[in-house]
Specification:
Immunoglobulin-like, 7-stranded antiparallel β-sheet, 4-stranded antiparallel β-sheet
């Protein structure tokens, strides 16, 4: 009885090993290549051909005579894009691949805020319009030195876009002032912050920009200064 049990155990182990070897060799037989891919950020999202497949590490299978695109993404880090090809006359995919992720310079140069892209009221209880308008212009020019449009009578001011390019992003910023009431005297100030998610985007390419919930650090104090000085 003991001999039969040992025989059965050995037989099952042999079967399992054989099955494993068949599966392990199957990809080689059909020409597939497998890559063990890992990222320096263990919670980074990994996409293969647009589909989320894991975080931090995964196995990438490249079919014969085909290519796959791997994208590794994480907030505050640059997006990494790698293409692996398994074709004749091309370098064979590596067995392992390590992605060393780098910090997003536009993220580090900015802060998250809830005051961007919304109107902020400035009530002038102690300032006449002439003095308030002069002070508004002084504050604006401290941050952006090109005023695109200004009309004292209607109380409207708009700066030109201020552009800042980063490795994988372009950020444009402007300030808009509008007089919303003359009695009492009230202005509305809006700090507009937009990003394209692309490097070196033209400031005129409006269709590529979207509102950004972050503000470059160089403009982070502008709303606070308006609120402190325009009263």
């Amino acid at each position: 009885m003991k001999t039969n049990l040992n025989f059965k155990t050995i037989f099952l182990l042999t079967l399992l090993i054989t099955t494993f070897q068949v599966h392990a060799n199957f990809d080689d037989l059909v020409g597939k290549k497998k890559i063990e891919l890992g990222a320096s950020e263990k919670d980074a999202d990994i996409y293969i051909n647009g589909k989320l497949v894991g975080k931090g590490s995964t196995v990438v299978t490249v079919p014969k005579d085909d290519c796959v695109t791997v994208i590794v993404k994480k907030t505050a880090y640059l997006t990494e894009r790698i293409e692996f090809c398994n074709k004749k006359n091309m370098t064979s995919p590596p067995k392992t691949y390590y992605v060393e992720m780098q910090r997003d310079d536009s993220f580090d140069a900015s802060i998250q805020t809830d005051i961007a892209n919304i109107d902020i009221e400035l009530k002038c209880n102690n300032l006449e319009k002439d003095k308030a308008w002069k002070l508004i212009n002084q504050i604006v020019l401290t941050y952006i030195d090109v005023i695109e449009m200004t009309d004292k009578e209607t109380g409207y001011l708009r700066t030109a876009w201020s552009l800042k390019a980063f490795r994988q992003n372009t950020v444009r910023t402007r300030i808009i002032i509008k007089e919303s009431s003359s009695d009492p005297l009230v202005f509305k100030v809006k700090l507009i912050s937009e990003s394209s998610g692309l490097s070196m985007t033209s400031v005129k390419s409006d269709e590529l920009y979207k509102e950004w919930d972050r503000v470059l650090r160089s403009y982070s104090n502008v709303i606070g200064e308006f609120q402190a000085r325009i009263k």
